[in-house]
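Lab notes, practical 5.
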Amino acid sequence: MKPPKFLSLLQTLPAESFQRFRRYLQYHAPRSNQYTPVMDFLASIHPKYEQYKGDLRGKIEEILLAHEAKSMDNKRRGNFLFRLTGELENFLAIEQLKHDPNTRRLLTLQALRQQGAALAYNEALEDAIAELAKQIDLSTDHNYAQLRVFHEAYYNTVNNKLLMEDYGLVYLQGAREQLHLFFQKLDLKYQIELESRGKVVRSADTPEQTVSTPTLDHIAANDAFFQLYQMVAALQQDPLNEELFQKLVQLYRKEGGKLNNEDQSILLKYLKNASAKLLRNGSSLDNLRLSFELADLGWRYHIFDVLGGYTSMNFLNYVEIAVALNELDWLEQFIQSSIRKVPKNQQKEIESTARANLYFGRKQYSEALICLRDTKSKDEQLELRIRMLYCKIFYEKEETGALLGLLKAFDTYLRRSGTFQPEIVQGYLNFLKLLRLIVPQPQRNYEKLEKLLPITSPLFGRVWLEQKLATKK
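Output from the prediction step:
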């Protein structure tokens, strides 16, 4: 059987395109023994391709005879040629896109689709692809056909990294590195978009399609976005790594000024999401300080998005963060400007409690007690905050008798309450236990007490206890 269509198409290729087709076939064709003789043949004629073009028919027939000798019947041989011809047609269609103004956009579109399938966040990427597709001129059947051919040619490519490096971007030459970097930016952008929708990214969902993100060693080491992206990729693998988050923020502050507005926006959004995860999972004081200091990046009020909105407890969470970080002047302005965002039926008691925390931070304990005594609320969560602040004030005033009585009453209140989750109750009980133990007594082994700190909550009580223990060594 003669393959006139395949041969006629193959003979139209110039030497440079022939080389690219050989690479394309190597990485894109199915891993089948049927393709091995063809690949060997193409490799053998590559050095003198122009000389052999007139004798290609005979060479292909020799390959077919070799297959026939291996008991390939006509039907199987015909199917093989059909697939081979289809591969060449796809290749030629892609070649025609070289000078198309939409080529870069199409490449980006397909790269997003490949990455999306590999990393299992298809939903966000499908939306992104739909938006990109709208930007491509699909008003004519010709352009639509180009898009379809391009998509089909790459869709099933497992070795997409090799294909993009060895064939897909060869003809773009000068744009090669920029496109690689552009892919990484879009990849990060839509991962962030997915996280903002509350989706969970689990590459294990599609184990057969998982493809590791290419390491782009050829991109200049001084590319600010690339350096930051590499660290972001590491943090995505270990989202609760506080040390890595701190390094990322420091690198952003050093290199962020080199980025354009779009890149800055992408990374700022990612860092906010990263800080949110750390805050939700219980963060150290150092990390709280970093999150709070991001105010110079325009994030200080982002804490309410992290904590779930302007609820009364979230407002107090932020107040206590500011006290722990000694941001007292800012806190006073914050209370004045933001208390109106708290639900109206709780504004009075929340403002009194917030100002009590402010006075406590300024060591104005009498004023703090006055604010607490003016606070009247049936909210049990607020009651926990008020009781804890009373304990800290009496400790600082060295009123040991009143403090021990308050600790006993607080302990009883917690144990009899059926409102709070067990882990919350236990965290407060640990706080009371430690506070009772650090009440001034002779020959106290404070180093032993430090071992209890990690299991003490809430965080802002633990921070305060750490400071008290540090003064007793």
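Observations recorded by the TA: The radius of gyration is 33 Å. Residues 106-202+221-278 form one domain.
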